[in-house]
Write a structure and sequence with these properties.
single chain; 7 helices; globular
Length: 206
């Protein structure tokens, strides 16, 4: 496995602000390729399915799927983008205070998935700054890893870089096969990849 810190730059090829990204990774103690490999998730989110709006509870993370009934910008009390998502069980409000990247994508009549924490608002339940995907995009088969991070380093970038490391690294077993098989242990490569991208079906079995 390569451990030259200069090689980290190759992971950020095509990303904006490479030097800034390197600083963010170093502030997490990630100097070497191996450091990134062992930067394990602190928790997981289940984005493999959706839930009816009527079954949501305040304070919990959910992924909703439905049709956008209304989309509008309001200046009261703050400049914000508001959308109403509806399914067969009910509807809830989606709200963005910063929405430049969403404004042209969020159109009434479209079927979307919205994920985030459901909170109580002035007009009922809402999700503030939900992440949006369109319904035609297949649902993931793995749980979504959530990593320890720092301000300015998004989960999307972290996942992308860690995925590159997993694909490029040669993960050799550190134990003889006889010992691993005697204690019924996973192969090293499988164990590392499972921690970063656990398949829900395997977790249910375990």
């Amino acid at each position: 496995m390569q451990d030259d810190p200069i090689n980290l730059k190759s992971l950020f090829f095509g990303e904006k602000g490479i030097e800034n990204l390197l600083c963010k990774f170093r502030s997490l103690g990630l100097y070497l390729i191996e450091d990134i490999l062992f930067h394990f998730p602190i928790r997981y989110q289940d984005e493999t399915s959706t839930i009816p709006i009527v079954k949501t509870k305040l304070g919990n993370f959910y992924q909703l799927e439905g049709e956008l009934k209304k989309v509008f910008v309001t200046h009261k009390p703050k400049y914000q983008l508001i959308a109403i998502i509806s399914d067969k069980s009910g509807e809830t409000q989606l709200r963005w205070l910063r929405f430049s990247s969403y404004h042209k994508k969020i159109i009434a009549g479209k079927k979307i998935r919205a994920k985030g924490i459901v909170r109580g608002g002035l007009f009922g339940r809402e999700i503030i700054h939900p992440k949006i995907t369109f319904s035609e995009v297949p649902l993931p088969k793995n749980l979504t890893p959530i990593y320890r991070t720092v301000r300015g380093l998004s989960q999307d970038i972290l996942r992308k870089i860690i995925y590159k490391v997993l694909c490029q690294s040669v993960l050799l077993d550190t134990l003889p096969d006889s010992i691993r098989e005697h204690f019924n242990l996973m192969k090293y490569a499988i164990a590392i990849k499972f921690l970063h991208h656990p398949l829900l079906i395997f977790l249910n079995i375990l």
